[in-house]
Amino acid sequence: MTPDLVTALRPLLTAEASAEAYAAGADAGDLEQAVWLRLLERLDAEGPPLDPQEWLRRAVRSEARRTRRTSRLEQPYVVEPVDDGDDAPERLALAAARGRALRAAVRRLPGRCPRLMEALLSPEDLTYQEIAGELGISQGSLGPERSRCLGCLRRLLTPEVAAR
Predict the structure, then answer these.
(1) Which of these, 147, 81, 83, 86, lies nearest to 113 by C-alpha position?
(2) Is 0.85 topped by the overall pTM?
(3) What is the structure's pLDDT at 162?
(4) Are 46 and 40 in contact (CB under 8 A)?
(5) Who contacts 74 (Cβ-Cβ below 8 Å, separation ≥6)?
């Protein structure tokens, strides 16, 4: 597209698009862009129009009609189609990464802590009695042992959390 053609047509296009936009229910800038695109396609296929101003007026009216037709056919969503559920892929990936980081930190714990924390994190939702039986310790010592292990885990994870 030649710069002088753009310079000559810009004020006319702005005026025509502004005049047609309201009735078409469109944004004047969108109409302008559509007409510029049509002009580029025409220049590529057929060359410049013989009467650029008349071509531009017809193109703006044509784009405005097309916009009106399209807007009549389009139906708004009743509910926004965005998935905000807990099963969104991003949330699942982040939760899996946090789970892996936690399990890696649990494996680095000293003594019986890894086994105790794995039992507490088990998806089977074990009771204290079942955990105590599995680890071979008394149920009464499970609470204090859990507190010590959580303290160790907190100290292990603090540098990692602070670094992020």
Answers:
(1) 147
(2) no
(3) 55
(4) no
(5) none
Token pair 């990464």 in the structure block, residue: 97
Dump the DSSP string for 14-38: HHHHHHHHHHHTS-HHHHHHHHHHH
Give 112-115 contacts, CB < 8 A, sequence gap 24+. 112/137, 112/145, 112/149, 113/145, 113/148, 113/149, 113/152, 113/153
Cβ 146 vs Cβ 120: under 8 Å: yes
Sign of CA dihedral 121, 124, 128, 134: negative
Number of neighbours of residue 162 by Cβ within 10 angstroms: 7
Amino acid at 117: M
Residue 5's contacts (CB-CB under 8 Å, 6 or more residues apart) are 48, 52
For residues 111-120, give the mean pLDDT.
90
Residue identified by tokens 């800038």 is 29
Instruction: Please report, for residues 28, 30, 145, the alpha-carbon distance to residue 33 in angstroms, rounded to integers and kept in the order given.
Output: 9, 5, 69
Helices 52-73 & 3-24, crossing angle to 10 degrees?
30
DSSP string, 145-159: HHHHHHHHHHHHHHH
